[in-house]
Hints:
Elements: H1 15-28, H2 33-46, H3 52-56, H4 60-68, H5 76-96, H6 99-104, H7 109-119, H8 125-134, H9 142-145, H10 154-160, E1 167-171, E2 177-181
Antiparallel strand pairs: 1-2
Helix pairs in contact: 1-2, 1-5, 1-8
Amino acid sequence: MAIGSDHKRIAQPKPADYLAVMTRAVFQAGLSWAAIDAQWEALLAAFERFDPRRVARYDTRDLARIMAHPGILHSERKIEATIHNAQTIVALEREHGSIRAYLGSLGSYEATVTALKQRFRYVGDISAYYFLYRVGERVPPFARWIQTVKGTHPRIKEMVGAGARPTLTRTRPEGRSKKTKAR
């Protein structure tokens, strides 16, 4: 299965998984999520499978190449956001050793969302929840969280399997597994 091609949780995300999931959330914002599902293979090709180190080095030629790539949304701002987000992931890996370690250092869900919205482009409350859920971080139960955002958002409810699990499993950086209650 292609990287990020479904909406399931990723047990042991790699750096490319983090960028792929975040990019999916960025591109889905304000659009039909089914449209991005249909474009996913083309987006994988355009962004070289979301290798953050490669995407972080993209320049204006790469931006033009992606804008001309067939079969994808040609939003210059979202493409630029993906490049910026790759640069941020690379910087955070350098600073913290891994994205997982960085996310784990932030404390509460609310603090994590605030940090994501400050550091990354085109990340809001819904995309932050989707991102954190997909990469295996602890998130509040969907029924509680959805009350904090405007609108009904049936697609995200479907994607995260709202109510499917009362607890979430997250692998700790030391490699040990610990069952934790969702916050």
